[in-house]
Amino acid sequence: MAGTDAPFDIAVIGAGPAGLAAAVAAVGAGARVALVDASVRPGGQYWRHRPADDGALHHDWATFSALRDGVEAGVRAGGLVHLTGHGVWHLERAADGFTVHAVANDHDVEIRVERVVIATGAYDRQLPFPGWTLPGVFTAGGVQALLKGQGVVAGKRIVVAGTGPFLLPVAAGLVHAGAEVAGVLEAGRPTAFLRHPMTAARAIDKLVEGAGYMATLLRHRVPYQTRRTVIEAHGQDEVDGVTTAALDADWRIVPGTKERIECDTVAVGYGFTPQVELAVDLGCEMTLDIDGSLVVTADATQRSSVDGAWVAGEVCGVGGSALAVVEGRIAGLHAAAAVTGAPPSSGELSAAVARRARLREFAALLPVAYPVRPGWRTWITGATTICRCEEVRADTLREAVTDLGATDARSAKLFSRAGMGLCQGRVCGYATAGLVADACGRDVTADDLASTVRRPIAAPITLGALAAGAINPTAPSTPLSQAPDQEASA
What we know:
By secondary structure, this protein is α/β, with parallel strands linked by helices. The strands form six sheets. Strands 1, 2, 3, 4, 5, 6, 19 and 22 form an eight-stranded mixed β-sheet that branches. The chain has a five-stranded parallel β-sheet with strand order 8-15-9-10-11. Strands 12-13-14 form a three-stranded antiparallel β-sheet, with no helix packed on it. The longest helix has 20 residues.
């Protein structure tokens, strides 16, 4: 498609680790790049920060600083436009490439490009339990976002629970900020690393990072327990305590092990859900990943099944920031080569591919070490809210199957309205699919999860913004002041 009149060669959607790396690689290879992101500052959820942040609360801040500098250099050189505050609500094929639809300052913005790199990241995966809708119950990522992005500690006495290595930096960050962490409850028992010592050894930096977090918890005498989690939150107007319980290998509650912990805040996270709405909307081939997530399939160049669309980071499998960066670099190099016709540097590309292989090997251990077991469905009662937005209870979902004949998550959604609220299933989609499949006597499928994320509008936009018509941002070669809402620096 080279030679079209599209003002940009490539749109990179998302400015987290993968998106920043893709944008820097693509502009460095001679492409005209639009970096489109809903946030006002680069970094995504992983490197969420405040102005003049010194990186004290962040891991691998040097990598972020280098990528941010690369974006700024691309802006100064005239090859890149950074469109901040632009939430992408639709992505579609066009005759000569793609049209990215974003909303900014209540205006519809259309960005025409030849190629796209989808690097939209992920959000916290939640499992419902009685009391989880009480004020004071946060996602683990939400607690960390408040701390990193606003300098706000979510509470005074906090319980951190769920599964996965992400619990450790959340707890350590809270301790450093002066909060009392009443306990870190890991629902699993991460012994897979012991069974794969060579793979773990090849990712020694990850092990050192985790050991550092554990050392912080030990210094502050924070209890850390495995095979235990929060099964109920208590309180009237806000949380005042939780009930915890030991779990068996399938995550069913072990009788006689319930304990109460007094707290005013709960931070809960069970891994991450890839944000694949745009990829699903575009028609990319999807698959069910080993951790139970819906992800985009990609070839060795990070290209999706849709010609001209590359993917990088959590959308093609949750594997951490380092893997997201290297996948973004590979995607950016290949997307730029498709535009310019010049192949990527073999040395740079081979080094990136080798690093990707090592990091993927370690990433494959994570769902083995921190699986989400189906026993979580036994924690909830019929009265437990599953869809917070539409106030749909667990028994309503089950009745959609047993009484109304729903056979999948989509039909259950139509009968019960689960997933039809403001979050559009982002919070309850995983749990809804799991409970419906359980009621149907089968496992969750990729189609179940796809039905919870398939929507033509991926981000809110007003009818007024649509009626007013679209704004087209200028190409990188024109003065930056003419492009709407762009920000050249962090």
